[in-house]
Amino acid sequence: MGQNVNRNVVIVGAGHAGASAALQLRQNGWQGAITLLGAEGELPYQRPPLSKAWLKGAVSFDGVVLRKAEVYQQQGIALRCGCRVVALDRGAKVVVLSDGARVPYDVLILATGSRPRDLPVPDAGLDGVVTLRTVADADGLRSRLGSTGRLVVIGGGYIGLEVASAARALGRDVVVVEREARLLARVASPEVSDFYAALHAARGVDLRLSAAVEAIGGRDGRVTEVMLTDGTAIPADTVLVGVGAIPESALAEAAGLACQDGIRVSSTCGTDDPDIYAIGDVSRRPLPFNGGAGRLESVQNALEQARQVAASLCGLPAPAPEVPWFWSDQYEVKLQLAGLPGSEVHRVMRGVSAEGRFAVFHIGTDDTVRAVEAVNMPAEFMTGRQWIAQRRAVSPARLADVAVGLKDAAV
Amino acid sequence: MPKVIYVSATGLHTVIEAGAGDSVMEAAVRNGVPGIDAECGGACACATCHVMVSTDWLSRLPPAAEAERTMLEFAVDPQPNSRLACQIRLTAELDGLVVHTPVSQR
Is the pTM value of this prediction over 0.90? Predict the structure, then answer.
């Protein structure tokens, strides 16, 4: 033990990870000052609804806020919104704000998140070409989708497909342009990709797969079309670029912390500076169920690392490692994923994709479950998640047979 | 404005004035009531907002939909009066609702 819970902690970044770490530190008995610095003007909020209910006007800011302002006051957390950190001075142990103010720390937690990757094509700076990360982005996109016109989504990943789903619900014409031969190519199995391609096509989305963007064209500073490398021009009133995210690690890199697609951290979120930690999207963390390290962009990861750093700083036992999980809502279909497939797996299908209820299990050579993707099959998701945590072996043949109860598929 | 009474596993009572249309989960999380984690933010995807509804209130709630019933089976130590707090919408009729948070959600 010997942890000093009276130190002064500064958290840079007030997203899901940063805000949760502040609250978790207090819950764990942290006595020292906690300062939470957020770059955005609003109270910390949840990002997942921004690509879903927010665009349809089905939720207000009060509906996505993480905690009311009073909760931070009651917990003795100094929350400063609209506060941009421009430098980190590790020698003096201070962070420097954009107005020149210097905020001293004993312990620093970097929770700076990630930002949308830019599209490396000419004229991507036209009015009407947008990305989606913040509530301000989501407001802008919602007002664009409120008027008539065509939305072209560049990138068939989760953000792009969720926005496509919301835009169709609003009656907009939608084209999705994906460079790979299938949707969700980096993050889902071919079975899940094919299901979502059929779903979006059935709901009237014009899918262009294996289609690379050459340029974005406009007139008078406003976007008018997306040009593909095969010469096709797709008329567009709004273009959403959803081609992945990159970690906001510039502060850490400038300060000389070890970075490699994210700030490298230990299982307690420590960086190579003993007084600096990093959590959430910005961190490259050990992956206990897969080996190696990786960056995870999810609420589950943000919360897990908030718990890890808060336990470590307060001298509490490390929480049990969690299986990474994620979800996506498109139309009325719920996709829930647990685990990371990795290599050396084969896939077992349970259920029928044409019926809109199926799960794809990723099974290792030792028959243990490594990952599950469940479409409208919450029991398969929850069971799969437990099996992954237990490194449970299953019978692939029984698992593939929906007549066999799920529990009876475990060996 | 319906009131909700949250009772922790250690017997601590917290009374919250919920906003109209809030779920039992949202009213708890926004006001910092411990014991309701709600990792998915109300998408019925995680079962970390598991509560036990006081039995005299249970029959006054709309029944759980299939997705909620399935997720509840996988909550830690589910009870006959278990519900997911994110799926209970507060109305004037539910003023005074009492829910208990489980030991597993601190």
Answer: yes
